[in-house]
Amino acid sequence: MTTPRIVVAHSAEDAGEQVADIVEAALETARHGRRDPVLGLATGSTPLAAYRALALRRLDLSRAWAFALDEYVGLEAHHPESYGEVLRREAVEPLALDPARVSVPGGSSNLSASCDDVALDAACAAFETALEAVGGVDVQLLGIGSNGHIAFNEPGSSFDSLTRVTQLTEQTRLDNSRFFGSLDEVPTHAVTQGLGTVFRARRIVLMAFGEHKARAVAAALGGAPTQDVPASVVQLHPDTVVLLDEAAASLLPSRSLSPSEAWA
Ligand code: F6R
Predict the structure, then answer these.
(1) How many angstroms does the Cα of residue 94 sit away from the middle of ligand 1?
(2) What separation in Å is there between the alpha carbon of 245 and the centre of ligand 1?
(3) Ligand 1 within 6 A of 145 CB?
(4) What is the reported pTM?
(5) Which of 87, 92, 144, 157 to mutate to test the pocket of ligand 1 (most atoms within 8 A of CB)?
(6) d(C-alpha 91, C-alpha 9), whole Å
(7) Which pLDDT score is estimated for 194?
(8) pLDDT digit string (tens) for 109-145?
(9) Rg (Cα) of the chain, in Å, rounded?
(10) Could you say which of 48, 73, 122, 150 is the most buried, measured as most Cβ atoms within 10 Å of its Cβ?
(11) Is 14 exposed, middle or buried (0-12, 13-18, 19+ CB in 10 A)?
């Protein structure tokens, strides 16, 4: 088993700079390989500092492909909290990504309530095909849910799972209700990349900031990999960097942090 490299940064901003370094290195590798880079983008609060750091570097991302992790099912078209819209505001426009090269599971706009199961399944399969067609993700950015989810793979998700429709747990809906007017407005279902989909990325960068993530981080990294804690799958990945702040790392057994890597 390969232990992920765990780095405790001074702050989310500091970690954001490190993510930007990692993305720049991936762009360089793709350039040397004469292929277009492929980025895996997360939504939510966690990656925002990284997107700000990347935007300030004014990298040429015009040839980059970008794939989102997930999307809610059932929001009206262009709802401001649909992940397609969030990604457009927080990443696609600030990083000058080409919108024609950005894919969100289930479609480029959010999935309407009228979308039937057959259409959703077809959209999930098309997303997997599109990912394969560009050669897979070079760097996948991930946040972690307070219940240990990554993307919207809730506890119990198979490590082999692919892009699919999933039911959100009450904990996840409650956590995400801060983006909506009330808990009732938070969708009950989403389309998500599977853990098997995420795992195919050549490099994974898992980020977590704040005390409210400490338990999930300890569960994901402090014990053996288990489907009860979806994020623990990163322990099995050959190239994962975990970027934490001190609060998020506070419940990790100290043996998880090698002295040379504990502090960035
Ligand atoms: C978002 C995603 C989720 C979030 C997680 C943490 O695309 O896939 O797994 O990363 O719910 O959310 P934040 O960052 O808002 O705490």
Answers:
(1) 19
(2) 16
(3) yes
(4) 0.94
(5) 144
(6) 22
(7) 98
(8) 445 545 577 889 999 999 999 999 999 999 999 999 9
(9) 17
(10) 150
(11) middle
